[in-house]
Amino acid sequence: MVVRVRGAGVCHSDISIAEGRFGSVRLPRILGHEIAGEAEGVGNVLVYASWGCGRCSWCSRGEEQLCREWTAAGWTHDGGYAEWVWVPSRRYLIPLGDLDPAYAAPLADAGVTPYRAVRRALPWLGEGSVALVIGVGGLGQFAIQYLKLLAGARVVAVDRVPQKLSWARELGADEVLRPGDPLPRVGAVFDFVGSSRTLAMGTSALQPGGILVQVGEAGGRLPFGWDHVPQEAHLTNSVWGSLGELREVVALALEGRIRWRVERMPLERVNEALARVRSGTVVGRIVLVP
Known about the structure:
Radius of gyration: 18 Å
CATH topology of the largest domain: Quinone Oxidoreductase, Chain A, domain 1
Number of strands: 15
CATH class of the largest domain: Alpha Beta
Number of domains: 2
Structural class: alpha/beta
Oligomer: single chain
Number of helices: 9
Strand content: 15-25%
């Protein structure tokens, strides 16, 4: 079926695709995997853009984003930087209720990806725990809130852009730091940049037995060995989120329990939007509106 696009979020991974850094993505491609719009017979919807084969063990568990035959809008199929987008099944459409589609579009990735990452790290979190969030961009703004909502953790946020740190404070971060500032010892690190420098930063702050979750796709590498990581540390990455998790995120949004910043731009200014995201200075998320 087709969805009339009312908003498409601009993600940093869109830049990586456009620059050919993901060899599995064939170009040219219409970008955009954070999509919200209107569907006939449903109304305003958010599109879950990660589609599995429907037959494997991952799909049977509802983890389609981990399917080996995974396909997705903006990656293997044309995405939401358009007026219309094709979706293979109605079940990938989540009703938005009273949420404005253009405002809701970032939930499809920026909202659900940190939700999954935080949920997976909950055994390392809890009242009195300390978590480090590296990068307070489109995803980091949600991570701070989930760490408070789901874990009751103390949150330390790191970013190089002062406006992002101010926004982190508004969202509940207990402490904000610039790169190079002394870091506290923490039980969990969430790296939404993923460069070699930020991975090293996160590892330097991690307590023995803690967990580091890499979400950002900056292509960084982390040496592994006795002299490189804390004792019994857990190192993992986290990929997107499931359809069920996205439904939970939309429910939180409808209840008014999370908030996020959106800057709307006309679709014809897409190159300007990509340049802004590439600069790393966007506070929140740019959403293209056809």
